[in-house]
Specification:
mainly alpha, glycoprotein, elongated, GPCR_3_C, disordered C terminus, 2 domains, 9 helices, 355 residues, Rhopdopsin 7-helix transmembrane proteins, GPCR_3_9-Cys_dom, three-stranded mixed beta sheet
Length: 355
C-alpha cells in the first residue's frame, strides 16, 4: 500500500505576490484575500508574498524589478561621460587661443594708432581678463570639490568685473577724449592712464570685497543631492549664501548697464572715437545673454544648471572679444594703410587721444 502524503489545504483568492510587490488589503471579508501592490519608489521586496517593502539606503536605488538595491550613479559634468563637457572644453581652448593671439598681436603693434587709441593699457587689461574668463570655465568642468566650488564663482565674478570695468573705463575715455579735444577744455586734466586705471581698480575692488564677504560669511561647498533625480546622486556646489551670490551678479549687471548707457549715448561721435559703437554692441550682447541666462539658470538642476552658466560665460566673453577687438584686428591685418596717425587725423577734425 502506497504511502499517502497529506498536504495542508491552501485556499487563495489570488496568486501569490511575486518579488517586487507586497500584500495590500482588500475590501473582502476573507483573510486569505489580498491584492498585490508594487513597491513604492525607493523600496524593494525580494521574497514572495511579502507583507512589507524595504526602503533602500540613501545611496542606493531599486533595480527595474524592484527586487534588489543597486548603487546610484553619480551625475556631474564628467570629462569621460558627457559630450557637453568635451564641447565646452574644446570651445574654451579655442577661444583662449584666439584671445591670446589677439593679445600677442596688440603687443606687437602696440605703437600703432589703432592699438594706442582709447588707451592701450586698458585694452591689454581687458584682453587678459577675457582670457582668464575663458580659462575659468575649467573650474566648472569635472567633479566638483570644495576648493573648486569656492574658486569657480569667485574667479568668474572677479574676472568678469575686471572686464566690464575695463569696458566702462574705455567708454569714459571716449567721452573725456571728445570733450578734451575742444580748446581750453576743463576735461584735459582728466586725460591720462591714471584715471582709467583708477576706474578699473575701484570698480573691481567692490566685487573683490563682495567675494571676500561671501567667503567669510558662507562660502560655497560641495554637496550631494540624492532626491532631485531618481537613481542619481548629483554632485554639485552649494552656493552657500545665495543672497551674496545674486549681489555679485547684480553688481556685475550694474556695471554692464552703466557701460551700455554711456556707450549708447556717445555712439554717434566722429569716426576717430567710434570705439563706442563696438562697446555698445558688446554690452548689448553681454546684457542680453545674462538676462536670458537667469530664468534658464533657475529652472534647471544639477549639471544642466552648470552648463547654462558655462554657456553664458563663453557667450559673454566671446561677445566682448568679437565686438571690441575683431574690427581692430581687421584693420591691423587687412587694412594696414588705415593704421597710421596721418590717416586718422585726416579723417577726423578732432585729435585722437593717445595713451
Amino acid at each position: 500500500m502506497n504511502d499517502v502524503v497529506e498536504q495542508d489545504p491552501q485556499a487563495r483568492c489570488n496568486e501569490p505576490c511575486s518579488m517586487g510587490y507586497r500584500k495590500g488589503p482588500t475590501e473582502g471579508i476573507h483573510a486569505c484575500c489580498y491584492r498585490c501592490v508594487p513597491c513604492s519608489d525607493g523600496e524593494v521586496s525580494n521574497i514572495t508574498d511579502s507583507d512589507l517593502c524595504h526602503k533602500c539606503p540613501d545611496d542606493h536605488w531599486p533595480d527595474e524589478r524592484k527586487v534588489k538595491c543597486i548603487p546610484k550613479t553619480y551625475d556631474y559634468l564628467s570629462y569621460d561621460m558627457d559630450i557637453m563637457t568635451q564641447v565646452f572644453y574644446v570651445i574654451s581652448i579655442l577661444c583662449s587661443a584666439v584671445t591670446l593671439s589677439i593679445l600677442t598681436l596688440f603687443i606687437l603693434f602696440r605703437d600703432t594708432p589703432v592699438v594706442k587709441a582709447n588707451n592701450r593699457t586698458v585694452s591689454f587689461i581687458l584682453l587678459t581678463s577675457i582670457l582668464l574668463s575663458f580659462l575659468c570655465v575649467f573650474l566648472f568642468l569635472g567633479r566638483p570639490v570644495d576648493i573648486t566650488c569656492m574658486l569657480r564663482q569667485m574667479s568668474f565674478g572677479i574676472f568678469f568685473s575686471i572686464a566690464v570695468s575695463s569696458v566702462l573705463a574705455k567708454t569714459i575715455t571716449v567721452c573725456i577724449a571728445f570733450k578734451a579735444a575742444k580748446p581750453s577744455s576743463y576735461w584735459k586734466k582728466w586725460v591720462g592712464g591714471n584715471f582709467s586705471s583708477s576706474v578699473i581698480i575701484i570698480c573691481s575692488s567692490v566685487q573683490v570685497l563682495i567675494c571676500v564677504i561671501w567667503l567669510s560669511v558662507s562660502p560655497p561647498y560641495q554637496e550631494y543631492d540624492m532626491d532631485s533625480y531618481p537613481g542619481k546622486i548629483i554632485i554639485q556646489c552649494n552656493e552657500g549664501s545665495v543672497i551674496v551670490f545674486y549681489i555679485m551678479l547684480g553688481y556685475m549687471g550694474f556695471l554692464a548697464a552703466v557701460s551700455f548707457v554711456l556707450a549708447f549715448m556717445v555712439r554717434t561721435l566722429p569716426d576717430s572715437f567710434n570705439d563706442a559703437k563696438y562697446i555698445t554692441f558688446s554690452m548689448l550682447v553681454f546684457c542680453s545673454v545674462w538676462i536670458a541666462m537667469i530664468p534658464a539658470y533657475l529652472s534647471t538642476r544639477g549639471k544642466y544648471m552648470v552648463a547654462v552658466e558655462i554657456f553664458s560665460i563663453l557667450a559673454c566673453s566671446a561677445g566682448l572679444l568679437g565686438c571690441i577687438f575683431i574690427p581692430k584686428c581687421y584693420i591691423i591685418i587687412m587694412k594696414p594703410q588705415r593704421n597710421s596717425k596721418k590717416h586718422i587725423i585726416g579723417k577726423s577734425n578732432h585729435d585722437i587721444i593717445f595713451q
